[in-house]
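Box 3.1 A note on notation
Throughout this textbook, protein chains are presented in two layers. The first layer is the amino acid sequence; the second is a token string describing backbone geometry. Keep the layers aligned when reading.
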Amino acid sequence: MSRYVVKVVGERDTAMELREARLDRVAGYRLLDALQGEQASEATLAGLERLAPGFPDWIVTSLFGGTYQRDGLSPRDRQVANLAALTALGGVDPQLAGHVRTGLRVGMTEREIIEVFVHLAPYTGLPKALAGLRVAAAALREGAEA
């Protein structure tokens, strides 16, 4: 473990100990497959790898092998947070649709997924909540037809 010294302007030096980040590439790929399905993962990663070599591995390793591996939130709770963040961001329909499907995989009901978007309306604004609902409805419909 490294030790870093942080100098705060106008104050005395303070020592801060930082923990080493845990990154587990194998666990990341395993989790991605579990959350999105192996075929969906492979299709997405292959297309992105052709466009930006190495970038998909960085995403999987740092996000699914790092952030998702942290203690403190269940996979279901992480999906609620993802749905909220992507809705607030807007303009990320493919990612939002994927996280709607992942929400079902981690035990959310269709009603709970829809309620996330309803709950977001006063926080993100009605247009973004409605856009999220539109994406969710399409993703849920596609899931029902599959």
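The mean pLDDT is 90. The first strand starts at residue 3 and ends at 7.
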